[in-house]
Specification:
- This protein has 97 residues and is α+β, with helices and mostly antiparallel strands.
- The chain has one domain: P-loop containing nucleotide triphosphate hydrolases (Rossmann fold).
- 15% of the residues lie in helices and 33% in strands.
- It has 2 helices and 4 strands; from the N terminus they run E-E-H-E-E-H.
- Strands 2-1-3-4 form a 4-stranded antiparallel beta sheet, with helices on one face.
- Strand 1 and strand 2 form a beta hairpin.
- The longest helix is centred in the middle third of the chain and has 8 residues.
Length: 97
């Protein structure tokens, strides 16, 4: 059984002369929690869009749950969930001490 759920090799996205993501490589194993940290404009959202099949990379390779980001974007979209905000804000209770 392969424990790698996300595999990214030299993934790059260019918009004209601007490089938003420059050869990023990483892997995420089953059960791991992984996050992108970086300043505004660092390429976090661009990377996520490529991994979700919403934007095609300029170059590089990636698989999400065994699905290729170039050829199986629909399968990726059907098998993942993404949320950049919590849906529990109204459930959080704060107490003043």
């Amino acid at each position: 059984m392969n424990d790698v759920i996300i595999k990214v090799e030299k993934l790059t996205k260019k918009f004209g002369d601007f490089t938003a993501c420059n050869e990023i490589s990483f892997s995420v194993n089953r059960g791991e929690i992984f996050g992108f940290l970086g300043a505004n404009g660092a390429g976090k959202t661009t990377a996520i869009k490529m991994l979700c099949g919403l934007s095609l990379p300029t170059s590089g390779e990636a698989e999400i749950a065994g699905f290729d980001i170039y050829n199986e974007t629909q399968k990726i979209k059907l098998n993942i969930s993404m949320n950049q905000r919590t849906v529990l804000y109204d459930k959080i209770q704060c107490s003043k001490n």
